[in-house]
Amino acid sequence: MDKSTAPLTSRTITQMGLFLALIIVSGMFALPIPGLGVPVVLQNMVIMLAGGLLGKKVGLLTNGLFLLLAFAGLPLLAGGRGGAAVFLSPSSGFLLGYLVCVPVISSLSGWLGTQHFWQLFIVYVIGGALCINFFGSFSLAYYSHLSWANGLKMAAAFVPLDMVKAALAAWLQLRLQGILHFETK
Q1: Domains detected in the chain
Q2: Minimal CA–CA distance to 67: which of 32, 43, 38, 90?
Q3: Engineering a disulfide at 129: which of 3, 28, 47, 162 sits with its beta carbon 3.0 to 4.6 angstroms away?
């Protein structure tokens, strides 16, 4: 049986549940940014780690389930937000970036490798911080009634802190990938 069509094992489902719980708990820590309508969160770091540790298929399923539950109205997003209205707000592009970053991180990990901190740091900066903020720039621009260039400048405000999160994610992955033996598919 092909790995991409193999049924999910109990180990994989447990890992998905663990990451779903971590994503939800990390949403409790949010720092509102006046004027932007989008808080600084730890959730995106855990979302990035799901792509790095769970891989493309399982990471995408986990992040997709998280977003589906938030869309259904559960208050899982930063600051206890949830519901369809959040997906029509300045945060919507960032939420789309949560999905897109997983295959980007997984692909970059395969290409660059995951043995060294700097490899993972580059993966998380490009596939995580820059990718999520790139998609977030569109919704920031749209809901602020500004040009996309201005939305990009607004999203760039998140990049320095997201670089710190990328470094922390790289460090965590180095420590966890050998211990927990994640099956990246």
Answers
A1: 10-179 (1.10.1760.20)
A2: 43
A3: 162
Nearest CA among 144, 156, 159 for reference residue 35: 144
Question: What are 16-67's pLDDT values in tens digits?
Answer: 999 999 999 998 887 777 766 677 789 999 999 999 999 999 999 999 999 9
pTM over 0.85: yes
Q: Specify whether the CB–CB gap between 172 and 182 falls below 8 A.
A: no
How many Cα atoms sit within 13 Å of 118 on the Cβ side?
0
Torsion of Cα atoms, 125 then 129 then 135 then 141, to 10°: -120
- Helices 131-144 and 159-180, interaxial angle, to 10°? 140
